[in-house]
Structure formats: C-alpha cells, structure tokens
Please model this.
Amino acid sequence: MATDYQGPDMSVATRTVLGKVRQMIPPMLDKFHKGQLGRVAVIGGSQDYTGAPYFSAMASARLGCDMSHVICTPAAAAVIKTYSPNLMVHPLMRQSPSGDEKGPDADDVSASIMEMLPRLHVLVVGPGLGRDPLMQETVSRVIQAAREKKMPIVLDADALQIVQKDPDSVKGYKEAVLTPNVVEFGRIWDALDLKDSETKNETDRVEILARALGGVTIVQKGGKDFVSNGETTLVSDLEGGKKRSGGQGDTLTGSIATFLAWRKAYLDGLWDVDGESLDEYEMIGLAAFGGSAITRECSRLAFLKKGRSLQASDLTDEVHGAFVGLFGQVDDE
Model:
C-alpha cells in the first residue's frame, strides 16, 4: 500500500515497508473504547532525570496511544506531573537510601509495579532511569515479570546496562526491542565478546548482535537506522534533522511502544484487515521501523523550523504532522 509521504529522500524499499507498517495502524472506529488502542508505561524517571520519561510517554500519547503512564520516583513524579496533565504518573520507583538509612528492597518496589502489568500492553524501560543500584535491580525484576507475561518491552538508555551485565535477561526474548546509541551498542557488543566477528556490510554488526541475543530486535541508530532481529533487516533511510540534541531517542522509544500496542490490537482482530495478514513477529520489526520513521521525520520537520536551536520538546510537537505525512489520513478510513 502506498503512503502519502511528500518529504525528500525516501527509497522505494522504505516506501514499501511503510506501506506494511500502515496496515498495523488502527482506523478510528466508533466501536472502540478507552484503552483498546494502547496502554503503554514508561519506567524510569529518577531525581535527576525527569525529561526523558516525559518525552517518551508524550510521543506515545501524541502518536495515538490511548493511555500513557510514567512509573518513576516520587521526586520525579512531582516534576513530571507539572509537565502535562495528560500523562498518568505513578511514584512507585525508589532510589537507594543514603548513608545508613534503611529503605525498601528491589523485591518490595518491583512488586507494586508488577501489579500494574495486567493493565498494560507495552513497557518502555530506561528513559531517565540512571544507574542507581536499587533502580537497576527493580527494573531487572520487572523485565523478567513482563517477559513471563510475553509483554513487549522497549529497552533504552540505562536499562541497556542490564543487558550489558546480564545478556540472558533478554536473550531469546523476541518481544524485546533494544534501541542503543553508538556507545551503548559498542558496550553490549564487547560484553558479548563479538569483537572478532567479521563484518563486511553496513548491516552486519546489528545482525550479528541480534543473533547473539537470540533474536531480539535491535535498532542501530545512525545516519541510517538499521532494524534487525538477526534474520530480517530493515533500513530506515529517511532524512532527519541535522541537530543531535539530547532526548530525541525518547521520541523513538515512545513511538515504537505505540506501534507495538497497535500490534496487539491488530492481533486481537479489533478491526477488519484488508489484504494478506501480517505475521506477529514480523510486526515487531515493523513497529521498530515505524518508530524510527516517525522520529526521523519529527526531527526533519523540527529542524526546518528551529535549526540549531532544536530541542527534544520540538520533536514532540511534530509527532502528529510526521504521522500524517508518512501514513496519510488513516483516521478517515
């Protein structure tokens, strides 16, 4: 299916993949009720980092997720609640106590978060998480619980420290999507002792890493984004903006999460699908590609307006315009 995208520098291959991604996007039907088209939670948000979980959750909401949650520390929650009343903010995370102060352990903290999992479709883990030991131990337990429920997880930022230290936490879990930057990619590559692997083509590294992790989907970010599960590789070559401000990766994680939530709606048969059905695992790569395309187009549009002053919040403002430019008026179908 063709798209209505009018921007420059789209390859035929990208246009074709976007047509498949478009099949995952639910039309806006009167029969739908609140929550069916996506319930996403972003887990992160420490005392020092409140912007990242907000940008991720807002990208999810702006793209069309019905319900966007942030699970963070109380200090972060107080701040994030001032950013937008549209997000549901839960102060359930805890940082390690200082000095000899006795605080909760990871089992206690994670238990309250695990109670939320049946009400959610997708988790984003990592934005604003930081490297506090209690925060890391807590999300490690939550990742395992989500895996047991076969819930899709998007891992970014400091959550990738868990993968680096314990690759088995995600190895073989095909519902996991990792979005490392170049430094994080290199650390995981080294942790898996892949330094002697032979690479000839530009997609070899992402394919080798995805296979080493047992078929997880990896988005290798760069001048082009390479999306691979080790068997199928998609190349997202849409033009982005030239400013590399911090926080743009948070738009990516939130966008991927919404596409993954729509994947569930698609698999649940909430609307009639025309043409050949999409495979449930193929859709994980398509969701990651869709998130990449949205983010790159947001960056391009924001850079046209803001130039070198571009900030992460400018991408948030462009999410709907990027969606319409890439996929057309799906809402009218």
